Amino acid sequence: MQLWHRALGAFMANCYIVACGETRQALVIDPGVPDPWIQSCVMENDLTVVGIVLTHGHLDHIGGVDWVKGWSGAPVAIHEADADCLTSPALNGSLYFGMTVQASPADRLLQDGDEVEAGALRFRVIHTPGHSPGGICLYRPGHLLAGDTLFAGSIGRTDLPGGDYHTLIQSIKERLLTLPPDTAVYPGHGPSTTIGDEKAYNPFLA
Q: Which cofactor does it need (predicted)?
């Protein structure tokens, strides 16, 4: 697996590009704004985008969806419980910030246990509600793309529409902390971490 990332937009949300080293097929994960870095990374590394995957439907993770789809033609996937966030500023939190962010409806609605693929690269969808009803993490052995569920030393906020603190804590403890401790965690904001470090040191998970 090859991985690139950059924090984009005013909310500094991490956009990830993951690719199969053999086929050069790639997924763009959480394109929060239409940033030229995304297209440059794809072109410079000779990648073919075969999917746009959203860890959840909040404004800072979906603002570049239509732009990426426009030049790549790749289908958009989001968990079914967050599908309406794409078209509803009230649900995606943008009205909360005095903004109006929208995207086209998704092409694929994900459920827990589904797989998303790029060449030989496969990620399993882990449904982790709490930050939003349809929040997901993407897992392959050794790697977890955690969205806004789990951060280095913190957890996702729960004050936006559909958020629930107790549900989030339950999701993290039951679905994520059971993964191998050396699993690298790539969150939606901030630096990477590991499951072991968060299990040992994250004050929200004591």
A: Zn(2+)
